[in-house]
Amino acid sequence: MVVRFVRSVVRSVLLLAMLLAATVDLWIKRPKYGAGGAVWIHGWCRRIVSVMGIKVTVTGKLPESGAVVSNHLSYLDILLYSATRPFIMVAKTEIKSWPLLGRLTAQAGTVYVDRGGGPRTYPAVNRAMAEAYQRGLPVLFFPEGTTTNGEGVLPFRRGLFHSILNNGIALRTSALRLSIHGDNGAATVADDVCWWGDAYFGPHIFKCLGLEGLAAQIEFKDEPVEGSDRFSLSENAQARVARGYEELGWEIGVPHHRFRDEAAVLAEG
Fold first, then answer.
1. Which of 105, 133, 237, 266 counts the highest number of beta carbons within 10 A?
2. For residue 197, which phi and psi values (nearest 5 degrees)?
3. CATH of region 2-268
Protein backbone atom coordinates (compact mmCIF):
# COMPACT_ATOMS: atom_id res chain seq x y z
CA MET A 1 0.00 0.00 0.00
CA VAL A 2 2.83 2.39 0.88
CA VAL A 3 4.60 1.72 -2.43
CA ARG A 4 1.39 2.29 -4.34
CA PHE A 5 0.72 5.55 -2.48
CA VAL A 6 4.23 6.85 -3.21
CA ARG A 7 3.85 5.86 -6.85
CA SER A 8 0.56 7.76 -7.02
CA VAL A 9 2.14 10.89 -5.53
CA VAL A 10 5.15 10.83 -7.85
CA ARG A 11 3.09 10.26 -10.98
CA SER A 12 0.53 12.88 -9.94
CA VAL A 13 3.29 15.47 -9.65
CA LEU A 14 4.76 14.43 -13.00
CA LEU A 15 1.35 14.51 -14.66
CA LEU A 16 0.56 17.98 -13.36
CA ALA A 17 3.99 19.23 -14.44
CA MET A 18 3.46 17.74 -17.90
CA LEU A 19 0.06 19.41 -18.28
CA LEU A 20 1.47 22.76 -17.19
CA ALA A 21 4.39 22.36 -19.60
CA ALA A 22 1.97 21.55 -22.43
CA THR A 23 -0.06 24.66 -21.61
CA VAL A 24 3.07 26.84 -21.72
CA ASP A 25 4.16 25.18 -24.96
CA LEU A 26 0.72 25.88 -26.42
CA TRP A 27 1.02 29.56 -25.51
CA ILE A 28 4.51 29.79 -27.05
CA LYS A 29 4.05 27.76 -30.24
CA ARG A 30 0.38 28.54 -30.87
CA PRO A 31 -0.27 25.59 -33.21
CA LYS A 32 -3.06 26.03 -35.72
CA TYR A 33 -6.54 25.11 -34.55
CA GLY A 34 -7.76 21.73 -35.77
CA ALA A 35 -5.37 19.40 -37.55
CA GLY A 36 -2.31 21.39 -36.51
CA GLY A 37 -3.43 21.28 -32.90
CA ALA A 38 -4.17 17.55 -33.12
CA VAL A 39 -0.65 16.87 -34.40
CA TRP A 40 0.78 19.04 -31.63
CA ILE A 41 -1.24 17.36 -28.86
CA HIS A 42 -0.31 13.91 -30.21
CA GLY A 43 3.29 14.51 -29.15
CA TRP A 44 2.24 15.66 -25.69
CA CYS A 45 -0.11 12.72 -25.20
CA ARG A 46 2.77 10.34 -25.88
CA ARG A 47 4.73 12.01 -23.08
CA ILE A 48 1.75 12.11 -20.71
CA VAL A 49 0.94 8.43 -21.20
CA SER A 50 4.59 7.63 -20.51
CA VAL A 51 4.77 9.52 -17.20
CA MET A 52 1.49 7.87 -16.16
CA GLY A 53 3.25 4.54 -16.49
CA ILE A 54 0.91 3.09 -19.11
CA LYS A 55 2.26 0.56 -21.59
CA VAL A 56 0.38 0.87 -24.89
CA THR A 57 0.27 -1.89 -27.51
CA VAL A 58 -1.23 -1.08 -30.91
CA THR A 59 -2.13 -3.63 -33.58
CA GLY A 60 -3.74 -3.25 -36.98
CA LYS A 61 -3.34 -0.53 -39.58
CA LEU A 62 -3.58 2.99 -38.22
CA PRO A 63 -6.46 4.87 -39.87
CA GLU A 64 -5.50 7.76 -42.13
CA SER A 65 -8.89 9.41 -42.65
CA GLY A 66 -12.62 8.89 -42.29
CA ALA A 67 -14.39 8.02 -39.05
CA VAL A 68 -13.34 5.59 -36.33
CA VAL A 69 -15.55 4.31 -33.49
CA SER A 70 -14.41 2.59 -30.30
CA ASN A 71 -15.71 1.30 -27.00
CA HIS A 72 -15.34 3.71 -24.07
CA LEU A 73 -13.83 2.83 -20.69
CA SER A 74 -12.27 5.87 -19.07
CA TYR A 75 -10.97 9.43 -19.25
CA LEU A 76 -7.76 7.68 -20.32
CA ASP A 77 -9.23 6.73 -23.71
CA ILE A 78 -8.71 10.08 -25.42
CA LEU A 79 -5.13 10.27 -24.14
CA LEU A 80 -4.37 6.75 -25.30
CA TYR A 81 -5.81 7.18 -28.78
CA SER A 82 -4.16 10.59 -29.22
CA ALA A 83 -0.85 8.98 -28.28
CA THR A 84 -1.14 6.48 -31.15
CA ARG A 85 -1.59 9.11 -33.89
CA PRO A 86 -3.27 12.51 -34.39
CA PHE A 87 -7.08 12.32 -34.31
CA ILE A 88 -9.91 14.81 -34.38
CA MET A 89 -11.81 13.77 -31.27
CA VAL A 90 -15.48 13.92 -30.37
CA ALA A 91 -16.06 14.45 -26.65
CA LYS A 92 -18.75 15.50 -24.20
CA THR A 93 -19.24 19.25 -23.82
CA GLU A 94 -18.23 19.21 -20.13
CA ILE A 95 -14.59 18.55 -21.05
CA LYS A 96 -14.39 21.97 -22.68
CA SER A 97 -14.68 23.61 -19.24
CA TRP A 98 -12.10 21.40 -17.51
CA PRO A 99 -8.95 23.23 -16.32
CA LEU A 100 -5.98 22.77 -18.68
CA LEU A 101 -7.51 19.79 -20.52
CA GLY A 102 -10.35 21.91 -21.88
CA ARG A 103 -7.95 24.35 -23.49
CA LEU A 104 -5.73 21.61 -24.87
CA THR A 105 -8.56 19.56 -26.39
CA ALA A 106 -10.17 22.63 -27.93
CA GLN A 107 -6.93 23.50 -29.70
CA ALA A 108 -6.94 20.03 -31.28
CA GLY A 109 -10.25 20.76 -32.99
CA THR A 110 -12.32 18.52 -30.71
CA VAL A 111 -16.02 18.37 -31.57
CA TYR A 112 -18.03 18.79 -28.37
CA VAL A 113 -21.40 17.05 -28.06
CA ASP A 114 -24.19 17.55 -25.49
CA ARG A 115 -25.12 14.15 -24.13
CA GLY A 116 -28.86 13.73 -24.24
CA GLY A 117 -29.22 16.98 -26.16
CA GLY A 118 -31.80 15.42 -28.45
CA PRO A 119 -32.87 16.45 -31.96
CA ARG A 120 -32.41 20.17 -31.30
CA THR A 121 -28.64 19.66 -31.21
CA TYR A 122 -28.39 17.51 -34.36
CA PRO A 123 -27.99 20.29 -36.97
CA ALA A 124 -25.10 21.96 -35.11
CA VAL A 125 -23.38 18.65 -34.38
CA ASN A 126 -23.73 17.47 -37.98
CA ARG A 127 -22.20 20.73 -39.23
CA ALA A 128 -19.30 20.39 -36.78
CA MET A 129 -18.74 16.77 -37.81
CA ALA A 130 -18.81 17.66 -41.51
CA GLU A 131 -16.12 20.28 -40.87
CA ALA A 132 -14.07 17.79 -38.86
CA TYR A 133 -14.05 15.28 -41.73
CA GLN A 134 -12.46 17.96 -43.94
CA ARG A 135 -9.43 18.48 -41.71
CA GLY A 136 -7.42 15.63 -43.18
CA LEU A 137 -7.33 13.45 -40.07
CA PRO A 138 -9.49 10.53 -38.89
CA VAL A 139 -12.36 11.54 -36.60
CA LEU A 140 -12.73 9.33 -33.51
CA PHE A 141 -15.82 9.02 -31.34
CA PHE A 142 -17.31 6.69 -28.71
CA PRO A 143 -20.92 5.80 -29.65
CA GLU A 144 -21.73 4.05 -26.36
CA GLY A 145 -22.24 7.59 -25.10
CA THR A 146 -20.80 6.78 -21.67
CA THR A 147 -17.91 4.97 -20.06
CA THR A 148 -18.35 1.43 -18.75
CA ASN A 149 -16.73 -0.96 -16.27
CA GLY A 150 -15.36 -3.10 -19.10
CA GLU A 151 -17.86 -5.96 -18.78
CA GLY A 152 -18.82 -5.57 -22.42
CA VAL A 153 -19.71 -3.10 -25.17
CA LEU A 154 -23.02 -1.27 -24.84
CA PRO A 155 -25.39 -0.71 -27.79
CA PHE A 156 -24.26 2.26 -29.87
CA ARG A 157 -26.22 5.49 -29.92
CA ARG A 158 -27.07 6.35 -33.50
CA GLY A 159 -26.97 10.15 -33.58
CA LEU A 160 -23.46 10.71 -34.94
CA PHE A 161 -23.87 8.03 -37.60
CA HIS A 162 -26.02 10.54 -39.50
CA SER A 163 -22.91 12.56 -40.29
CA ILE A 164 -21.07 9.52 -41.64
CA LEU A 165 -23.83 8.68 -44.10
CA ASN A 166 -24.56 12.29 -45.04
CA ASN A 167 -20.91 12.97 -45.91
CA GLY A 168 -20.12 9.61 -47.53
CA ILE A 169 -17.38 8.89 -44.97
CA ALA A 170 -15.70 5.50 -44.60
CA LEU A 171 -16.28 4.07 -41.11
CA ARG A 172 -13.76 1.83 -39.36
CA THR A 173 -13.63 0.40 -35.87
CA SER A 174 -11.20 0.01 -33.03
CA ALA A 175 -11.30 -1.87 -29.74
CA LEU A 176 -9.61 -0.75 -26.53
CA ARG A 177 -8.92 -2.94 -23.51
CA LEU A 178 -7.26 -1.89 -20.25
CA SER A 179 -5.48 -4.30 -17.90
CA ILE A 180 -3.18 -4.37 -14.87
CA HIS A 181 -0.29 -6.71 -14.15
CA GLY A 182 1.76 -7.13 -11.00
CA ASP A 183 1.14 -6.73 -7.28
CA ASN A 184 -1.85 -4.40 -7.00
CA GLY A 185 -3.57 -5.95 -4.01
CA ALA A 186 -7.34 -5.89 -4.32
CA ALA A 187 -7.33 -3.40 -7.21
CA THR A 188 -9.43 -4.30 -10.24
CA VAL A 189 -9.65 -2.99 -13.77
CA ALA A 190 -13.39 -2.35 -13.35
CA ASP A 191 -13.07 -0.14 -10.27
CA ASP A 192 -9.52 1.24 -10.37
CA VAL A 193 -8.87 1.71 -14.10
CA CYS A 194 -12.27 2.08 -15.80
CA TRP A 195 -14.08 5.28 -14.79
CA TRP A 196 -17.82 4.87 -14.71
CA GLY A 197 -20.92 5.37 -12.63
CA ASP A 198 -20.63 7.95 -9.87
CA ALA A 199 -16.87 7.61 -9.28
CA TYR A 200 -15.19 10.93 -8.46
CA PHE A 201 -12.44 11.95 -10.86
CA GLY A 202 -9.80 13.11 -8.34
CA PRO A 203 -9.70 10.06 -6.05
CA HIS A 204 -10.03 7.72 -9.01
CA ILE A 205 -7.11 9.06 -11.01
CA PHE A 206 -4.94 9.17 -7.88
CA LYS A 207 -5.58 5.45 -7.31
CA CYS A 208 -5.10 4.69 -10.99
CA LEU A 209 -1.71 6.41 -11.08
CA GLY A 210 -0.48 4.13 -8.29
CA LEU A 211 -1.15 0.91 -10.17
CA GLU A 212 1.68 -1.37 -11.23
CA GLY A 213 1.72 -2.72 -14.77
CA LEU A 214 -1.11 -0.60 -16.19
CA ALA A 215 -1.48 -1.53 -19.86
CA ALA A 216 -3.68 -0.63 -22.81
CA GLN A 217 -4.28 -2.66 -25.95
CA ILE A 218 -5.70 -0.97 -29.04
CA GLU A 219 -6.59 -2.87 -32.18
CA PHE A 220 -7.68 -1.09 -35.36
CA LYS A 221 -9.73 -2.86 -38.02
CA ASP A 222 -9.07 -1.63 -41.55
CA GLU A 223 -12.14 -3.02 -43.34
CA PRO A 224 -14.87 -0.36 -43.57
CA VAL A 225 -18.20 -1.04 -41.88
CA GLU A 226 -21.20 -1.13 -44.19
CA GLY A 227 -24.78 -0.06 -43.51
CA SER A 228 -27.63 1.38 -45.55
CA ASP A 229 -28.92 3.60 -42.74
CA ARG A 230 -27.84 4.79 -39.29
CA PHE A 231 -29.56 1.82 -37.64
CA SER A 232 -27.74 -0.91 -39.54
CA LEU A 233 -24.49 1.05 -39.65
CA SER A 234 -24.41 1.53 -35.87
CA GLU A 235 -25.41 -2.09 -35.18
CA ASN A 236 -22.77 -3.48 -37.53
CA ALA A 237 -20.11 -1.22 -36.01
CA GLN A 238 -21.09 -2.22 -32.46
CA ALA A 239 -20.92 -5.91 -33.33
CA ARG A 240 -17.41 -5.52 -34.77
CA VAL A 241 -16.15 -3.50 -31.80
CA ALA A 242 -17.66 -6.00 -29.35
CA ARG A 243 -15.98 -8.88 -31.17
CA GLY A 244 -12.64 -7.09 -31.21
CA TYR A 245 -12.96 -6.35 -27.50
CA GLU A 246 -13.59 -10.01 -26.75
CA GLU A 247 -10.59 -11.06 -28.81
CA LEU A 248 -8.32 -8.70 -26.90
CA GLY A 249 -9.61 -10.28 -23.69
CA TRP A 250 -8.65 -13.73 -24.88
CA GLU A 251 -5.10 -12.52 -25.45
CA ILE A 252 -4.69 -11.55 -21.79
CA GLY A 253 -6.61 -14.52 -20.41
CA VAL A 254 -9.93 -12.86 -19.59
CA PRO A 255 -12.78 -15.44 -19.64
CA HIS A 256 -14.63 -14.68 -22.85
CA HIS A 257 -18.01 -15.85 -21.56
CA ARG A 258 -18.28 -12.63 -19.54
CA PHE A 259 -18.33 -10.52 -22.68
CA ARG A 260 -21.12 -12.00 -24.75
CA ASP A 261 -23.02 -9.75 -27.09
CA GLU A 262 -26.07 -8.25 -25.40
CA ALA A 263 -28.34 -9.38 -28.22
CA ALA A 264 -27.23 -12.98 -27.65
CA VAL A 265 -28.00 -12.70 -23.94
CA LEU A 266 -31.49 -11.38 -24.66
CA ALA A 267 -32.10 -14.16 -27.15
CA GLU A 268 -31.17 -16.76 -24.56
CA GLY A 269 -33.60 -15.20 -22.09
1. 237
2. 65, -135
3. 3.40.1130
